[in-house]
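Incident review: delayed structure delivery

Summary: a single-chain prediction request sat in the queue longer than the usual turnaround. Root cause was a stuck worker, restarted by the on-call engineer. No data loss occurred. The affected request and its eventual output are reproduced below so the record is complete for anyone auditing the incident later.

Affected input:
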Amino acid sequence: MMNLIITCARHLEGDTEDELIDILEELGDSDVKIAVSNMSGIITVETKLDPIEVVRKMKEMLLDEPWSIRYCLRVIPIQKVVETNIDEIEKMISSIKNQIEEKESYRILIEKRNSEISSKEIITKIANGIKNKVSLDHPDKIILIEILGIITGISILKNSDILSIEKTKRSMSD
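Output delivered after worker restart:
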């Protein structure tokens, strides 16, 4: 379905799509499937590359060549896709929560677009099934829930697995 969500500026979806095709081709996937969603500034990508690797390599590209990425704002790796439904989301997370090691802290991050589903209810349900310590400021892992209307992307990530182009560029100038 999709294993990357890219955000870009409104009305620049086309340029962002071209940029992504070039980047992913350079990284070794010339057969990437890209869908511009009906939500402005959201693009979903299906690549055969490991999405977390893609983020790592795009970070390297930025450090080498800050202007090589002009349109992508955030690049978010997605591990699993389910329909937007609290039980489905909770079941999927429960099947991958072993990616959070016993001593690691976590936080749940929900980004919601075009959906009325209750974030609070999702968080309560998931947190009940996870014994680890919660840390809102410096979690070892983030349980990321990206709700795009009727589909939801889920990942368990380290903070560094999500690429924010702006933050990366800013940290380079510090």
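Verification: The first strand starts at residue 4 and ends at 8.
Action items: add queue-age alerting; document worker restart procedure.
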